[in-house]
Design brief:
The structure holds 2 protein chains of 2 kinds.
Chain A lengths: L1 H23 L2 H14 L5 H5 L13 H31 L4 H15 L2 H16 L4 H26 L2 H9 L4 H12 L1 H16 L26 H9 L4 H30 L1
Helix pairs in contact in A: 2-12, 4-7, 4-10, 4-11, 5-7, 6-7, 7-10, 8-9, 10-12, 11-12
Chain B lengths: L1 H41 L1 H7 L9 E2 L4 E2 L2 H32 L4 H11 L6 H23 L8 H25 L3 H9 L4 H12 L1 H17 L2 H6 L17 H8 L6 H33 L1
Helix pairs in contact in B: 1-12, 2-12, 3-6, 3-9, 5-6, 6-9, 7-8, 9-12, 11-12
The chains are: A mainly alpha, B mainly alpha.
Chain lengths: 275, 297
């Protein structure tokens, strides 16, 4: 029958068309990469990475303050969110059905969906307002809250995958419960927990909105977490909306470094979680 | 004796350990409750002054201290839904291609990476790229169709939002398609369906709730997205006339004005906006997650 052949032909044409559309949808990403590398790579050199910004009009200068700032902010966020996140994750996996577990899981899911700008407001209310000034600490707290749900979720999920027998074997050997968790269960789930931490770091490394009114930015090198601090995303934002061509170039260079860093974290996360 | 006392010590350590675990869960819950209470407390001035009329007032005047959120709520919904409409055909196509045509292999891997990694590009970088690449393109388009060529505006913001949310709905949609049992698909083939007829009449209906959950969760993303939108939306305080006009979203107003806000009512109105955004995105996300959970059980 002719109509059957027609239907098969239609099915084939649609499959080619859909595949074509899905390839087209990768174009924006490739364009972004192309743009950033084309405009950014020529800006990056040793001076760019190791010196502080110079006033507009003076040639040279770099973004050392922003690189150091991003590193410090990520460090604060990790210190705050990793212990708490793993602890909550263990609680959720171990006391899976308690009421508190249900409520914490709900809170964790809500936190994961909170827009980053709202987290910025919270860090402003909780830290900046009482202290009376912007600080790296408040920015780190905002970023820490952002990555917390990812650490919790990955910890809970990987611990649930670990066979009961391992835990029971350890307990049967007379190993106390807390040691069983700390020395047997958590090491067994380490790769999953690590994936969550990496994914969380990738999520916060490029965040700007929570830093606008917490870390605020700083043109100088700062190691004091109670003072305002710069960060790569903040610098990109400030330079991108400025009217100076030289600053745009610096913003491209910074974007290039930041995107490579974040994509590296993302790809690493995927490779680990696949194993 | 020594043995017994170490055993007792170990037992009390167990107790402490359990307390620490429970305590950390309580801290998390307190953070969640504190979130809402702090936002509410900080917006109380504005709530007292404007009440629910805040949501329907079309005015934002820091000098007269008169505030209303209508233009921003409108801008937020408009950009998010246009972004959804633009991204949906693409994310559906990706879900079908990765969920049925290419489930494994090099092509599938490359396609998956390329479509999902755009979600990893920092929002501020996408906004910067948008300013220098998308804005000029939109300006040319605007000249061609004869509207004021701002370049920035609702449409530009929606375009960039569409790129950003596409991976979320595509990835969840793909997972939903892959959950369709082979038996069901084979039954459709056995009845004489072609591959496309099977996808259209069996796979998509079967995976429907997963696809919808993906769309709702990506809507949640779009509603709260800040930096990229702030940079290309034009920051206009009125209600946008058409989709090419400049506008503002709730998030972009907060990002732009928070550090400049002087006066208690002004700042508290921005907090009120923040609380509104928090509630809207939370409701949208919980609905999406609820559907996903029902699907998994």
């Amino acid at each position: 029958m002719g109509s059957y052949k027609l239907r098969i032909l239609k099915s084939k044409i649609i499959s080619v068309f859909l595949t074509f559309i899905s390839i087209v949808s990768t174009i924006p990403f490739l364009l972004v990469l192309y743009f950033i590398i084309k405009n950014g790579i020529s800006v990056i050199n040793w001076e760019f990475l190791t010196t502080l910004p110079k006033p507009v009009g003076e040639p040279g200068g770099g973004i050392l303050n922003a690189i150091v700032g991003t590193a410090i902010l990520i460090l604060i966020a990790l210190v705050l969110s990793v212990p708490l996140g793993i602890s909550v994750g263990v609680y959720l996996a171990e006391r899976s059905n308690s009421k508190l577990a249900f409520v914490s899981r709900l809170v964790s899911e809500i936190l994961q969906g909170v827009p980053s700008i709202v987290i910025g407001i919270i860090a402003y209310l909780w830290v900046v307002k009482p202290m009376g000034h912007f600080s790296a600490l408040s920015g780190g707290i905002a970023l820490g809250i952002m990555m917390l749900p990812l650490v919790i979720k990955s910890t809970e999920e990987i611990l649930k995958l670990i066979p009961r027998e391992i835990k029971e074997a350890s307990l049967a050997l007379g190993v106390p419960y807390y040691r069983t968790i700390l020395k047997v269960i958590i090491p067994a789930g380490l790769s999953g927990i690590l994936t969550g931490i990496l994914a969380g770091t990738a999520r916060i490394a490029g965040e700007t909105a929570p830093l606008l009114f917490t870390a605020f930015g700083n043109p100088f090198l700062n190691f004091n977490i109670l003072k305002p601090i710069s960060a790569m995303p903040l610098l990109i934002f400030n330079y991108a909306v400025s009217p100076y061509e030289d600053w745009w170039a610096k913003a491209w260079g910074t974007s290039c470094i930041l995107v490579i860093f974040v994509l590296f974290l993302n790809v690493t996360t995927r490779l680990i979680s696949k194993r | 004796m020594a043995n017994l006392s170490t055993k007792r010590l170990e037992l009390s350590k167990d107790k402490i350990f359990n307390i620490v675990l429970g305590f950390s869960a309580i801290v998390l819950v307190l953070i969640g409750v504190g979130f809402f209470l702090s936002l509410f407390n900080a917006s109380i001035e504005s709530i007292k002054k404007f009440g629910f009329s805040f949501f329907v007032r079309d005015i934002w005047d820091p000098v007269q201290e008169e505030f209303g959120a209508l233009p921003f709520i409108y801008g937020t919904l408009l950009t998010s839904f246009i972004a959804l409409a633009i991204s949906l055909p693409f994310s559906l196509a990706i879900s079908i291609v990765l969920g049925e045509y290419f489930r494994k292999g090099l092509f599938a891997e490359i396609l998956r990476y390329l479509t999902e990694l755009i979600a990893g590009v920092p929002s501020v970088v996408l906004g910067f790229w948008g300013l220098f690449f998308v804005v000029p393109l939109v300006r040319e388009l605007e000249i061609k169709i004869g509207v004021p060529p701002y370049g920035v505006g609702i449409f530009t913001a929606s375009l960039i939002l569409a790129f950003m949310i596409m991976p979320y709905s595509a990835s969840i949609g793909k997972d939903a398609m892959r959950l369709v049992p082979d038996e069901v698909k084979e039954a459709a083939y056995a009845l004489g369906a072609t591959r496309w007829e099977m996808i259209k009449k069996v796979m998509i209906p079967y995976a429907r709730s997963g696809i919808i959950a993906g769309v709702i969760l990506s809507l949640g993303r779009a509603l709260g997205e800040t930096m990229a939108v702030t940079m290309v939306i034009g920051n206009y305080h009125g209600i946008p006339e058409n989709i090419f006009s400049p506008g503002n979203t709730i998030a972009s107003v907060i990002a732009n004005e928070f550090t400049e806000a002087t006066g208690e009512v002004y700042l508290s109105s921005l907090m009120y906006l923040g609380m509104t955004l928090f509630i809207i995105t939370t409701v949208v996300n919980l609905i999406g997650r609820f559907i996903l959970k029902k699907l998994q059980h």
